[in-house]
Amino acid sequence: MLNRVVIRFAGDSGDGMQLTGDRFTAEAASFGNDISTLPNFPAEIRAPQGTIPGVSSFQVHFADFDIMTPGDTADVLVAMNPAALKANLAQVKRGGLIIADTAEFTKRNLAKVAYPANPLEDGSLDDYQLHALDLTGMTVAAVHDFGLSRKDASRAKNMYALGLLSWLYNRDTETTLKFLSEKFAGKPQLRDANITAFRTGYAFGETTETFGVTYQVAPAPMPAGRYRQISGNVALAYGLVAGAQKAGLQLFFGAYPITPASDVLHTLSKLKRFDVMTFQAEDEIAAAGSALGASFAGRLGVTASSGPGIALKSETISLAVMTELPMVICDVQRSGPSTGMPTKTEQADLLMALYGRHGEAPVPVIAAQSPSDCFNAAIEAVRVAVEYRTPVFVLTDGYLANGAEPWNVPHLDTIPAIDPGFATEPNGPKGEFLPYVRDEETLARPWAIPGTPGLEHRLGGIEKDSRTGNISYDPANHQLMTDTRQAKIDRVGRLVPPLLVDDPGREDGEGARLLVLGWGSTYGPALAAIRRMRKTGAKVAHAQLRWLNPFPDNLGDVLRSYDRVIVPEMNLGQLAMLLRAKYLVDVRSYSRVRGLPISVDEFEADLFEVLRELGSREGVLQ
Description:
Elements: E1 4-12, H1 17-31, E2 34-40, E3 55-63, E4 74-79, H2 82-88, E5 92-101, H3 107-112, E6 129-133, H4 135-142, H5 150-154, H6 157-168, H7 174-183, H8 188-207, E7 227-231, H9 232-247, E8 251-255, H10 262-268, E9 276-280, H11 284-296, E10 300-305, H12 307-323, E11 327-333, H13 350-355, E12 365-367, H14 373-388, E13 391-397, H15 398-402, E14 404-408, H16 475-492, E15 501-502, E16 514-519, H17 523-535, E17 541-545, E18 547-549, H18 555-560, E19 564-569, H19 574-583, E20 587-591, H20 600-614
Helix pairs in contact: 1-6, 6-8, 7-8, 9-10, 9-14, 11-12, 17-20
Pfam family, one: POR_N
GO molecular function: magnesium ion binding; oxidoreductase activity, acting on the aldehyde or oxo group of donors
Domain Pyruvate/ketoisovalerate oxidoreductase catalytic: 14-203
């Protein structure tokens, strides 16, 4: 019995590692384990075969308790070739299990990654539990009767490996067998070959004496409910649909494909039955323009992209600020600048989301903290966009977008309705329509659907009169409109709850002196490190910022109540800089820009160093 296991499947980008990892994750999820995943794949459509840049991997962490990350290091590595072994060996624990496909460890493949000798034979892996197996040969033999070429037959080796791992960790096989039957329903030959390879791999584990023991990870205790495995991009798409439904609006999604945001478009394109219209535009500018046009027409306009696309959309987002129309912009952040590392994660678009427009163009910004939380963040963004008549940014990143975890599917009747409050009649003293007369509570202007009799009005990018909407170059009016647009965003702060701090000893006067303040996907690694530290008696407080514009009203007081504030970010300290400037507090950045989530092990060690600097009231770490 084990309480947790981290498995990494690695091979060429054509070896099906993402599919293999996803299927093992589904098996773990159906069993009731808590799960967290980290897919990692090349940006190239087909990187050179057998090279390190061409390695694709999928890491799954499953446990019998609440886990926060996909794990820093792997307990098990399945390496389909020398490149996969070399690229991932440093992230395997000493004593960990390595299963390698001997068929691919040829002289040519070894030379491609500069192995002077075969690591499966030269003793360099003696610190690990090495199982060198001819996965390709055994797979080809297993599917021989289906008449496939050797190349096509060998492609089923990922299912052979999945069957073996399913046996080793006592996973249920029915979910994968059903999946394969459905996926290859139109290709019976491939269906039967993959099912046979999977079953043969499982049977090999049962009959061989290669493995002396099998393992089991018990289900994790979770609140009662209906669960499913969900990725951040899918959760984001579902949240957008739920928000539109609660507002009674058609969802119009205008987008241009870009890694890692494309799956939002893919998912929404399958949901037309929920009054969803998707439009793949010719470029990012057209995608944003179509979304804003949909909002002008009384729909919920949404667009999604990553950093390069958001840069191209910036002028249209400024137009949305000026016209004061609802619009949701989803930024699935990736490594930059420019094309950067398109399949790797980062949090470096924060300042662009806040300030990356010309003129004074404030917009609310919300950040999701986990894959499943993307659903909630999307609904909150829709509510603010619709009720306050403003574009709203939703920030996720590649780690959240592609990662998966269990999701307790909510009851939709528990989600409050969203009122679009369309204008239906003239509001002026002379029976005219004044498009900029505002709601006293939200400062939102009326949303009038074009073609509504009596509600004709001007709309565009040039500054408007504060009531009539006529073009105005009056200095005092521009000052008023600029101040009002900012004040409207400030009013959103009334919806932002006070920042909650997880500090167990605070109420008794024995709280921590160190606060870790996270945002976005740093939530998991930060909380995982803090939980470990608390088990040793260390005192560390934790808080998570959800709204990045506007900030919670009590944020300044929270920051000033701790001797040291550390902000972990996957950028060079963007939020830390903002907090220092706004609140004049010595906030310190913990910066990692490596295209990977923050390491729990490293962060824990560095926080202990901070505690040693501060000292401990109880003398635990003197």
